[in-house]
Inverse folding.
């Protein structure tokens, strides 16, 4: 889930427990990595550092008219709402340049990235495949057609919400077709909850600026019980390569599905890991994804692994740092190399690392954050980042779309990592004040 604000606090330990190791990096010829990113994306600086480390230049395409980060003086400003004009402007600006690969940081950029790469004859997913990664209804159709393990589902139109019903047995999960990061995803246990959830999602879609089919339809799925996992990988020339599996130790049972803890390496048995990887790879094939990073969310149920979401990008937010903490290699470097056809080489043994995506639990204006120093002093805590500025409004799920920030930990063991995150979070206090909506009374 990506925070919309460009500002953040970051508090770091100056003596991390594990020093960063250095690995020989494959050489790339002089050229450019074309990075397409929304204005304010905090994925830009890590990609800038990765490109510099690999000896290539980074050219950023964004919807910002100003310098995107202090290290970048120039970029290509486009309007993501007009993809035809954006595509023409980008292609004109890069004429004559040696472009190694085209990358997208966020879901909103994946389609445009695919189109540009296709025009340049660079390895990339087809635009049709990229579209499946942000249309949940079309994705379910593709998975079902390919014989993947899918839940019972249906698409319903949000008209006369008080009369809506579903033929799927309760409990069910109702999902917007194209919103990301669990925004608008609600579990309903009976008919009354179903109607209330659909009414609420209808309002969320309106406020989110959705239009067309996505504005007036939602996906309804049978609720799946079982532990949930995230799988990070990269496809190089049609072959899926695992980077890591993240455990989600906190049960995600609803009514909303805000993610909190990610820990690696996974504590799954080897047979379960292989089953998970095999199903994610099979789903990538069903989507016709052939090249580039993959972030998947799946559950292991009594009937096997079931894919929940599949994105043609890396993990969101700052969570990519977990790859570096556990493998001692930067995620962005692995992605650039993979996009250039170089398969990842990971160490045989990885370190334990974890992150807490700090949830927004209460509405209101953020006044201050207390306990940062005490939280940072917890053993094995590496970083704490607060991504919402004082005075900004906090909006919980399902309406909200941002985390408060991130807590990172690295310890000798999985249990110690998990405990450090919990302890540090317990020391933080987010002080808020109510927001007041004052409407003028007429009479």
């Amino acid at each position: 889930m990506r925070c919309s604000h460009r500002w953040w606090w970051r508090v770091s330990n100056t003596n991390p427990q594990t020093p960063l190791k250095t690995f020989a990096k494959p050489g790339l010829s002089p050229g450019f990595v074309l990075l397409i990113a929304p204005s304010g994306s905090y994925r830009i600086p890590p990609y800038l550092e990765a490109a510099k480390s690999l000896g290539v230049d980074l050219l950023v395409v964004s919807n910002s008219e100003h310098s995107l980060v202090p290290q970048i003086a120039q970029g290509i400003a486009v309007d993501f709402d007009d993809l035809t004009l954006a595509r023409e402007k980008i292609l004109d600006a890069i004429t004559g340049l040696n472009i190694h690969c085209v990358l997208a940081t966020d879901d909103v950029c994946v389609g445009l990235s695919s189109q540009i790469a296709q025009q340049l004859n660079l390895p990339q997913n087809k635009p049709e495949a990229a579209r499946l990664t942000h249309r949940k209804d079309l994705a379910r159709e593709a998975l079902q057609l390919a014989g993947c393990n899918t839940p019972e589902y249906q698409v319903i139109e949000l008209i006369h919400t008080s009369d809506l019903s579903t033929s799927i047995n309760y409990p069910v999960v109702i999902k917007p077709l194209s919103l990301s990061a669990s925004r608008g995803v609600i579990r309903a246990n009976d008919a009354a909850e179903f109607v209330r959830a659909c009414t609420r999602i209808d309002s969320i879609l309106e406020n989110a600026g959705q239009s067309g089919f996505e504005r007036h339809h939602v996906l309804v799925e049978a609720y799946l019980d079982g532990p949930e996992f995230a799988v990070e990988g990269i496809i190089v020339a049609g072959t899926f390569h695992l980077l890591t599996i993240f455990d989600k130790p906190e049960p995600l049972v609803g009514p909303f599905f805000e993610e909190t803890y990610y820990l690696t390496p996974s504590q799954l048995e080897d047979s379960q890991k292989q089953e998970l990887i095999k199903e994610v790879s099979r789903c990538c094939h069903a989507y016709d994804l052939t090249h580039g990073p993959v972030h998947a969310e799946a559950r292991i149920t009594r009937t096997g692994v079931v894919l929940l979401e599949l994105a043609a990008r890396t993990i969101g937010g700052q969570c990519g740092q977990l790859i570096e903490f556990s493998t001692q290699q930067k995620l962005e470097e692995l992605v650039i190399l993979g996009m250039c056809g170089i398969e990842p080489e990971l160490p045989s043994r990885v370190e334990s690392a974890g992150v807490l995506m700090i949830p927004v639990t209460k509405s209101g204006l953020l006044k201050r954050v207390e306990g940062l120093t005490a939280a940072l002093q917890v053993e094995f805590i590496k970083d704490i980042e607060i991504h919402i500025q004082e005075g900004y409004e906090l909006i919980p799920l399902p309406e909200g779309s941002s985390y408060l920030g991130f807590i990172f930990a690295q310890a000798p063991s999985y249990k110690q990592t998990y405990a450090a995150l919990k302890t540090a979070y317990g020391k933080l206090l987010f002080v808020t004040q109510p927001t007041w909506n004052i409407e003028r009374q007429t009479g």
Notes: The mean pLDDT is 88. Residues 270-287 form the longest helix (18 residues).
